[in-house]
Amino acid sequence: TDGRGIFRVYSPEMGNKIRRYHYLIEELRLAIASQSFTLSFQPIVNVDDFSIDYFESLARWNHPVEGPISPAEFIPIAEDSNLIIELGNWILFEACRQMSAWHNAGMNKVKMSVNISGIQLKHLPVYEWVTDTLAKTGLPPTALLLEITESCLIHASEKIIDDLERLRQQGVQIAIDDFGTGFSSLSALGNLPVDIIKIDKLFIDQATINPKYEKILNSISDLGKQLDLKIVAEGVEVASQFELVKNLGIHCVQGFLISRPESSYNVGSKVIRNNLN
Ligand code: C2E
Ligand code: CA
Ligand code: CA
Ligand code: CA
């Protein structure tokens, strides 16, 4: 209270949060203008032989004063401010450029995935944007995968769904990200333009400790298989989770157990060492 018996919603802590929010928007603008972002790459591997199916590109921001700022913090701010459109442009270009270079170096069976936010889908002519970027970077459409969250996909307009379908006809694959958190009915899967289901880490974490979650995981995996979708389990951190996921017949895993996201330099030198292609 302010001493006169009036309660205010405002607190010093809230003031700090709001200040940081506005500060980060301004800093994001500067960082975009000076191209101060990098991408990290995390492999998604087949459970049978650990061969790499694709890399997920993940945005990184190392702020000159604040140090590394998590995408879990700056991506939502970039979305709120529409800065994600310009930033996402750079991300898609850079991810495609990198994979095109790796293809030319011989790693030509591996694909690249890029996270696309709902704001980008809403404001961009998605088909033209993606096909233009592929043409500019020389990456074949069959080497690109777009990750779109379940909640974005179920709210997408007909025009967006149509654009995604046209991209699929060119060979681009669509993954439904954070699956299980968007509360869509499973039957919605039948109408969405998707090739891959990425089951959210939450289910992987719960499944080894709670048998009910194991059953949910099992039924997602069964349904996905019946619909001819590839199933990926994200956030696999320990061997027991890997074993469970493998026994359920899930095709691919991503997680710290296999590899953390790494710089292009590290990925490139490992691939050359192991001659993965
Ligand atoms: P996401 O799309 O679900 O990406 C997976 C996140 O899980 C990444 O966090 C990755 O580092 C983390 N992860 C992978 N394996 C494990 C594991 O075994 N354990 C744990 N604890 N975490 C694991 P990151 O890189 O911090 O990204 C967080 C989120 O920020 C992403 O979640 C995505 O929603 C967003 N994001 C990141 N990069 C981009 C981007 O380029 N564009 C857009 N639109 N969003 C992005
Ligand atoms: Ca993702
Ligand atoms: Ca995800
Ligand atoms: Ca997630």
Automatic annotation (TrEMBL):
Residues 21-275 form the EAL domain. This is GGDEF domain-containing protein. It comes from Shewanella japonica.
